[in-house]
Structure formats: C-alpha cells, structure tokens
Amino acid sequence: IEYAKLYAAEAEPLEGFGEVPEIIQIFLIHRPANNIPYATVEEELVGEFVKYSVKDGKEVNFLRRDSEAGQKCCTFQHWVYEKTNGNLLVTDLQGVGMKLTDVGIATLAKGYKGFKGNCSFSFIEQFRALHQCNEYCEMLGLKSLRTTHQKQRKATPTKSKNLPNSSTVKKMVPKKAREPRDFISSEH
C-alpha cells in the first residue's frame, strides 16, 4: 500500500495523468467463537471485476493494453520495478476500475526490504520480457525495459523459455459475494 501511495503522489500532479490505481486495505479480524477464528474483510467493490494480471504467471491479460485502468496498472508495476531496481514487482492486479484488491508480490531475493513475496521471482523476468511501455510510463519518465532486457540477454546467454498463452480473464462478482479468506499461518 505504501508503494501505491508514493506512486499516486508522483503521478497525480502530472498533467493528463488523471486518476491513479488504489490498493484497498484488507483487515484481519479475530472471531474466537468461530471454527476458523481469523478472516479478512475489505471494502465492497461493486461493478465489473477484472484481472489485469494474474498471479500464476501463465496468462497475460490484454485488457491491460486496452483500458485506462489496465495501462495504469502496468505503469504501476513498471514504476515499482524501477524504484526497487528490479528487486520487487506487484502482481495479481485485479479489482473494479481503479480500486485494486488482493495484489501479489514477487521479490528477486527472499526478504527484500522485509517483503516475503507470495509469487515466484520468475514473474519479474516475465515482466521484463513482456512489458510494453505506454503513455503513462512515458509521463513518469520510466526507462524502457526492452533495452535493459535486450542488453541482459546479450550479456547472459539463457535457455529459451516458452512464453505464456494470452487470454483475457473477466468475471462479474460483487465483493460482498466473495467468501472471506481464512487466515492460515505457515512457518517455513
């Protein structure tokens, strides 16, 4: 949420940028009388629920290129990537319009700045390879990843990887219809 606030502070004053994606807070509640004593709650999102990127890295949603919210989500990913020198990437961007929920985090190194990360670091490599800058990236003065990625590929020979299939994922679900996710503690 803090990166989203910093992004908004940098992007909102720019002429022509407009509304900025917002990550809504999720709260953990304790229900001692319940079989599952912990649950999460968040603001109800009403409208068309769209996945702008997916957590498993197997799909690329082309709505990212076709909608303002999608382009701004891609720009937010690029901005975080650049601000963290490629060490962190927000993933699984989904929500209604500019309100995002349940985002994922991929880190290049375990525990980067206290972030555990809940997505594979391979998403960072995939992002570098697939991201296409848009007008909002340009407004923020973000560096093209194409040049960076091409230089890295020339310097480091890698095995070719199959790129994920492309598809669009949409669903219409009011937030209140979603079941709360249970809190599961795991120790590694």
Which descriptor suits the 3D outline? globular
Give the termini distance in whole angstroms. 25 Å
Percent range for helical residues?
A: 25-40%
For this entry, what is the oligomeric state of its chains?
Answer: single chain
Rounded radius of gyration (Å)? 17 Å
Structural class: alpha+beta
Instruction: Write the element-wise H/E pattern from the N-terminal end onward.
Output: HEEEEEHHEEEEHHHEE
| Uncertain spans | 148-188
**Helical run tally:** 6
Q: How much of the residues is beta strand, in percent?
A: 15-25%
| Main sheet: strand order | 1-8-7-4-11
Report the strand count. Answer: 11
Query: What composes the largest sheet?
Result: 5 strands, mixed
Secondary structure layout plus pairing:
Layout lengths: L1 H10 L10 E2 L2 E5 L7 E5 L6 E3 L7 E2 L2 H4 L1 H16 L4 E4 L2 E3 L2 E2 L3 E4 L14 H9 L4 H5 L5 H11 L9 E2 L3 E2 L17
Parallel strand pairs: 1-8, 5-10
Antiparallel strand pairs: 2-3, 4-7, 4-11, 6-9, 7-8
Structure description:
With 188 residues, this protein is α+β, with helices and mostly antiparallel strands. The chain is built from 6 helices and 11 strands. The protein has helices spanning 2-11, 63-66, 68-83, 122-130, 135-139, 145-155; strands at residues 22-23, 26-30, 38-42, 49-51, 59-60, 88-91, 94-96, 99-100, 104-107, 165-166, 170-171. The two termini are 25 Å apart.
